[in-house]
Automatic annotation (TrEMBL):
This protein's record includes keyword Membrane: yes
Name of the molecule in the record: NYN domain-containing protein
Domain of life: Bacteria
Transmembrane listed as a keyword: yes
TM helices/strands, residue ranges: 12-35, 62-82, 94-127, 147-167, 199-220, 240-262, 283-308, 314-337
Entry keyword set: Membrane, Transmembrane, Transmembrane helix
Organism of origin: Micromonospora luteifusca
Amino acid sequence: MTMIWRWWAYWPAWSGYAAAAFSLLYGGLGLYWWAGGDGFPFAPVDPDHASGSILEGSRVEVVAPVIAAVGLLGAIVALVMTRRARPGRLSVGLVAFGWAMAGALVLIVPDYTLITLVAFAPLLLVFAFTGVPGDQAGVGDILYWHRTNLIIIFVGGLLWAAATLAYRRRVRAACGHCGRRHGAGDGPARHTLLRWGRWAVLVACLAPLPYEVTRIAWALGFPLGVTPDFLRMMQDTPGMLAVGLGCAVASAAGGVLTHGLVGRWGEVYPRWIWFKAGKRVPPALAVVPASIVSVTIIPAGLMFLWTPEVRGTWALYVPSVFWIAWGIGLGVATVAYHLRRRGACRRCGSGHVSDNGQDGVLFRLGSLLQVHRSARRRIGYDGLRGRPLV
């Protein structure tokens, strides 16, 4: 576990090479499919094994050469980003290309597969040992190639996002881990971040309400937004309404947890958690799951913009489109929470003392040992003049 953490801590150094490797390999697959190889993941298949990707059902002779060209170009761009970090027009173009790649691979190409994995991960783990109930032959009938490919693409998009962020920080002469520059301040004030976070949390809590209301109504027998025949079809399909109700309940519970991004209990454990009461909540405990949900719910909502099959029934279409606002609101609230809670950077020593009291002071003193000699001299001088070391 320690080795994995140390490896992850150096993500600004290796993310560019990882993005280049992904682009090269996937571009090579594009050449293979263009040459007539099997396994083109967007080819038309039976409805039971099709994905909701924007590329689903596309022609291999059209899409495969584009995949090959973009993949090979991406490998070159990613390698250039790891070698060159000087401001200029080229750096602007590289950053624009990197964010375009990340956005397309994370938000545009995938479908609802990622949020489904997040919501049903515990069940999939159980199904791997007990088998999938119903007509499915196994987990392979759930994670078939058209869906697995979208997971691979999503991971590649995350690599591109990390590589682009690291490159942008190097160009700005900022810390690769926290993005701060010495002498440039610590960003927006805490009360400003809290205000932004509250508005974002409001959006994130209101956006999924149409989905929750319709699914609960169906479970109670009310054909809200659907025809009575469609409701009877769902009632006759084992588990269909139960899954919808479970997702609605999970969404509502997530809305409650989302309030922790702006509430005091999101920073200090409340009294009803007796074994942790009064202790500091680790920021990662909120940032990691909220980030995962925010970046996986957006492509699920975007998918319905180019899925005409469900547009005749507004209760299937409209509530899911609001997931886009849900993901954006949750993402903004998560970023505001992270910026508000982060302490001094372990790498460069920049930033405020952590909100963990005495432990935060010790953490700050320890991080100062890693600062460049000139920076330490400047900070020490300010301390002698009576200025706070934050």
